[in-house]
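Request: Not sure, any thoughts?
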Amino acid sequence: MNRTTLSLIAGATALAAVTGFAAVSPPDAPGGDTARPAARLPVERTSLLCPAPSSSDLAETSYTSFTPVTKGAESGGEARLEPADGGGDGKAGDERAGTPVLTPREPGTPATGETSGADTPALIGTAQGRLAPGWTVQQTTEVTAGTGRGLQGVGCTAPDTEFWFPGAATAAGRTDYVHLTNPDDSAAVVDIELYGEDGALESTVGEGITVQPHAGEAILLSTLTDEERTDLTVHVSVRSGRIGAAVQALDDKTGGDWLAASADPAGSLVLPGVPKDAAAVRLVVFTPGDADADLKVRLASPSGLITPVGHETVRVKAGMTTAVDLGDVTRGEAGSLVLTPTDRSVPVVAAVRVVRGEGAEQESAFIPATAPAGTRATAAANSGKGSTLSLAAPERAAKVRVTASAGSEGGTPVSKTYTIRAGTTQDVAPPVPSGLKGTYALTVEPLSGGPVYASRTLTATWDGVPAFTVQTLPDDRGTVSVPVADEDLSVLQE
């Protein structure tokens, strides 16, 4: 087999490991230039992993699955979301005992499921065929009392090999866990490193953690170090295998939520959807490289880019976590934080911790830096009220189409187009399907202009506590770029 073909296969295999699978065709002959420009094709298989939702007996957890309708997707296929068994028996998913939490429906219609109590395990999901492109699962937990009380939400994630979580803590009053889920038939070996304001925390406990096949593990951060730190960056790296990872941050006074991984280290970052009524905003930044980073801090407000007085720039020392209290930076207007280099570009990761409410009636949530919405992004588990969509265009004006799907129990999809001016964030009450019954999904599709960054906020109020959770909306990975040529791999022989 020629080297060009081998390179194509290797590249396609690496891509499929994270995003799914699509057909690949190689060039006709060694050294030939017969390949046409890459095509965007729907993925044929994808995986999602949901962490164990809560250790509280009061927890009520809902799951919502949704696959957008994708042109060119296969006609058949199925999807399942079932409990991780933790048995390490090496059996494939369809051979293991376990009742699916939900069984996804056809594209365009959400499916829902519920669990309760403290014994709900992590979930492992796979989708194939027409249900794979853009498959999204939202996990939302209500905890009405105790540590971490509030609304805890997280988008179930695809397996990967590296994650960054700025914003974790081991301080008094905080109980933070790193949740690791292994979807594969062999054990995964994971390292967890902690970085504070003075650099790496000394610990060997986080090295070589084994996560058994088809299992989930929750690692309490305070067991990895004796040091109490208010601001930490957690680095999860995989020696072998692949995992899903998320941090559950529980606070005695301000409730709790999930901290999703930051976007990959980059010189410029966007953190979309800081609520307009935020009482406190704490920015946490880390640079994993050997050089310090100097960043401009700006807020993309509804009227344009604003520089917070007293927080015009932030210096992030190499290998050290830096935190900045921005207070009520939004001043009653929703916005998105935009971090850009003052001079040379140094890769960083970042997240913000947002607090709403006053006194004993406070609730907290996290917004990590995120990638743009790309071709399409999806948020599941919206109701007729309590959902807000934030759309930011920090560089250039953009036009965006937002589609509300059919409801899980009935309703007709509707779409609405928004124009986001350059340097602004627009907070919108999303469209609602006509005749809505149940929950529905929102699909964000940038149509023209600059990159769009998006997030969705869910809100509820219990006994005066403004419970909320925010999920960012990066590209849903529904399609992959695949080289196209006249010859099909299936006819090649060594």
Confidence is low (pLDDT under 50) at residues 1-33, 86-97, 489-494.
